[in-house]
Amino acid sequence: MEDEDTRAVRLAGPTAEDIVSDLTGEQLEGIRNRVRASIESIDAGEFKEYDGREGLKKLADRVKARGRKLLAQEASGQ
Question: Where are the domains of the chain?
Fold first, then answer.
């Protein structure tokens, strides 16, 4: 019988490397651009602080909504 660690690895979802390898060059460049812009914003002092679980939940909800919007635009060919 498989030990638990071996089974967990076998059943695990795709790794970050698997996901990144499936992205197109355009998708990768878009991610790079957004990361660079975010870093520049932080360096310029343009950032928000989120307090506690509720603040992090609000942040996560906004990030998910933005991601869904981007995926919908991509799916519609815009």
Answer: 14-47, 49-78
> In the chain, what are the helix, strand and coil shares in percent, each to the nearest 5?
75, 0, 25
**Is the separation of the CB atoms in 68 and 74 below 8 Å?**
no
Place of tokens 């933005």: 66
How do residues 44-73 score in pLDDT, each as one tens digit? 999 888 889 999 999 999 999 999 999 999
The tally of CA atoms less than 13 A away on the side-chain side of residue 54 is 0
What's the confidence (pLDDT) of residue 7?
Answer: 77
Rounded-to-integer distance, Cα 31 and Cα 35, Å:
6
- Which of 6, 5, 31, 4 is CA-nearest to residue 19? 31
* C-alpha span between 66 and 1 (Å, rounded): 44
pTM of the entire structure? 0.48
